[in-house]
Amino acid sequence: MELLSALSLGELALSFSRVPLFPVFDLSYFIVSILYLKYEPGAVELSRRHPMASWLCAMLHCFGSYILADLLLGEPLIDYFSNNSSVLLASAIWYLIFFCPLDLFYKCVCFLPVKLIFVAMKEVVRVRKIAVGIHHAHHHYHHGWFVMIATGWVKAAPRGLEARDQ
């Protein structure tokens, strides 16, 4: 027990929560999200025939949780797109994954050890999004526990909310 108190995990968690997400953690979140998009059947063909539709799909993969949470809270749906740096970073990642010569960027980020690091970093973003979603809902509904839980869940799990045909 003294080992746990000597480690001061509470302070470690607090200092870890203050680490900014942009650009490193957001970069990993965008890479993994757009990789999942590229794995979808027909995504590569769509990017060649209709690049703007492919870009819009990529932005929905990256920012879908924010849009859905804004819908639940009655805020403007495209409010998150005013964050230009995130949209530009996600757009650059989309371009590199779909249009990099010889698929070099795609091959680098799909290399299993690199991909595992990106997926782990994406999970850090997911935990942060839960906390931000609960905090965001708390400002609108101070005693609405169900709304806070639902908003935290929606912000963290947009891919889990998709209807999948398998």
UniProtKB/TrEMBL annotation:
Q: Please tell me where this protein is predominantly located.
A: nucleus
Where is the protein found, in the record's own terms?
Nucleus membrane; Sarcoplasmic reticulum membrane
Give GO cellular component annotations, separated by semicolons.
nuclear membrane; sarcoplasmic reticulum membrane
Which UniProt keywords are listed? Ion channel, Ion transport, Membrane, Nucleus, Potassium, Potassium channel, Potassium transport, Sarcoplasmic reticulum, Transmembrane, Transmembrane helix, Transport
TM stretches of this protein: 20-39, 51-73, 93-118
Q: Which domain of life is it from?
A: Eukaryota
Q: Return the Pfam families for the record.
A: TRIC
Record's family? Belongs to the TMEM38 family.
Query: Quaternary arrangement and interactors, per the entry?
Result: Homotrimer; conformation seems to be controled by binding to diacylglycerol (DAG).
Function noted in UniProt: Intracellular monovalent cation channel required for maintenance of rapid intracellular calcium release. Acts as a potassium counter-ion channel that functions in synchronization with calcium release from intracellular stores. Opened by a change of voltage within the sarcoplasmic reticulum lumen.
The entry's protein name is Trimeric intracellular cation channel type A
Name the source organism. Rousettus aegyptiacus (Egyptian fruit bat)
State the organism's lineage: Eukaryota, Metazoa, Chordata, Craniata, Vertebrata
